[in-house]
Amino acid sequence: MTNKIHAHVPYSRLAEHLEYAISHHMNPEVFFSADALDHLVWEELSSLASALHSAGLNTTIHAPFLDLNPGAVDTSIRAASAHRIRQVMKAAELLRPRVIVVHPGYDDLHYGDNRLVWLKNSIDFWQEFVPQARELGTILAVENIFEKEPSTIKALLDAVDDPCFRHCFDVGHWNMFTTVTLEEWFSELGSYVVESHIHDNHGTSDEHLPVGEGAIDFKQFFPLLTQYAPDAVWTLEAHNTEHLQRALKNIRNFIS
């Protein structure tokens, strides 16, 4: 179990948490904000990556997402989104992540009447980066955010149709936004899942609570995740060390 568990850490705090990660053998999911990418010191990233790899740790990356949208109708927004993903792919050359998590940028409120336009733009957008992911030995994984059901993500994954372009299932976002059951979600997208973001909430806000401290039924979730995606990365999206430690403790109540 330990090898597949990762923990969220912003790049700006990676050096600060490096000793903890190594001593606890905690694989990091490194989140790069736009600001972090613009001020990245590549020699520093190279040194941190070497330390992680030397300690036998795996990495994943969470790409920037605020204000970005790979399927945007506005070409300038798509161009800005592509610029950020190119920066992330360069960072991936050093970190060698198992997975790079990306946000789709879709929601029914904004794109309901333009769903097919968004979908075409998004398909075209990711065609540039999938070959790069393959060369780097990583997988781009589209995370569910505001999706009420899985059809839009499934349409995107089916259209790109590449093993280096898959799904990151965020159970916290599912609990907040979707109108389908866990079984229904996994029956549609379970075979695409290469990573899951694991955190808890009460269904009204993105609280990022430790597992078992909100309203999500993890007794149902973990068997489904194990059944459909036995090799998936599990990323605990705790936002401080105390919550991470509680999550690691609580998760043992739900798995054998």
Describe this structure in words.
The chain is of the alpha/beta class and 256 residues long. It has one domain: TIM Barrel. Helix content is 48%, strand content 15%. It has an 8-stranded parallel beta barrel with strand order 1-2-3-4-5-6-7-8, surrounded by 6 helices. Helix 4 (75-95) runs parallel beside helix 6. The longest helix has 22 residues, at 115-136. The chain is globular and about 50 Å long.
List the main descriptive attributes of the protein structure presented here.
256 residues; alpha/beta; TIM Barrel; 8-stranded parallel β-barrel; 48% helix; 15% strand
Unreliable stretches covering 5 or more consecutive residues: none
CATH topology category name: TIM Barrel
Quickly name the level 1 CATH class. Answer: Alpha Beta
Total E-strand runs: 8
Calculate the mean pLDDT score and round it.
96
CATH superfamily membership, which one? Divalent-metal-dependent TIM barrel enzymes
Structurally, the number of domains stands at: 1
Rg, Cα atoms, Å: 17 Å
Estimate the global geometry from the Cα principal axes. globular
Number of helical stretches of at least 4 residues: 11
Order of helices and strands: EHEHHEHEHHEHEHHEHEH
Q: Provide the helix percentage.
A: 40-55%
Largest sheet: 8 strands, parallel, barrel
Backbone structural class: alpha/beta
Which second-level CATH architecture applies? Answer: Alpha-Beta Barrel
Q: What distance separates the N and C termini? A: 10 Å
